[in-house]
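User: Here's a chain of 310 residues. Predict its fold as tokens.
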Amino acid sequence: MKKAVYALAALAVVAGGVGWVLSAPTTMSDAEASALQEGDATRGELVFWAGGCASCHAAKGAKGEDLLKLGGGLRLETPFGVFVAPNISSDKTDGIGAWSLVDFANAMTHGTSPDGENYYPAFPFTSYARMNGGDLGDLHAYLQTLPAVSGKAPPHELGFPFNIRRGLGLWKRMFLDPSPVIAAPVAGVETDLALWERGRYLVEGPGHCGECHTSRDFAGGLQLARWLGGAPAPTGDGKIPDITPVEGGFGSWSAADIAYYLESGFTPEYDSVGGEMVHVQENMARLPSSDREAIAAYLKAIPVVAPESN
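Assistant: Prediction complete.
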């Protein structure tokens, strides 16, 4: 009997050790980190709007220049608890003003903080992981030009086991994948491949559209087989719509309709954008028209997602 107890104890120790190793926060390789270069703040402004940084990190209801004051504090109420957007202003104490480019890139692409902790995926690093080094350098440069805002945001409000950050390392091993979600345009749809690939980069990467428009499993990971096929609203009641080219729905919009909607906020039926999509549309309106056209091209040439059975 004692031998069995000792064996079980030994197995528990081994399992705990393996779990500890597998849950460790990850960072860029030395080669990846050394390849990063400080970017251009002018280019970084476009990345900033494509990434929707102000939508979460500026004060609720902020307009104009206040959108550039990234003191955080927005509360995101989810089934896992309340996440509070942090201060990402250029303040060196309370924000990210003291972060190096490597610190920033590790946060964006690995969900790992400068002090080696896992970030929660309410911060959409699973999408930002698809961003290229040039855009990361440009965005970092731009953020350093924005106003410093003092004061740290309140902590997240999470119960057990979601308050154990170390466990997120295992979550990231399951769901953090920088490869494209959609490998190529669907067969039979004529499209400019270079334009489509630019749209894929914007939608799947900095635009992080899948974070809201794709349903999640019980662990909170995106169900990539249902990419952009609609999902329950992550922070409240209602449903985020299917934006695949489904017949009778979003698929009835032309590429020009989609691009115009992102520019103006008006649908082909002359309805106006509403809800949380208002912020997204206002951000997209700041991008070059070629980027909105690229997003439209991508959305017109991805697989349709079948309705979920009840």
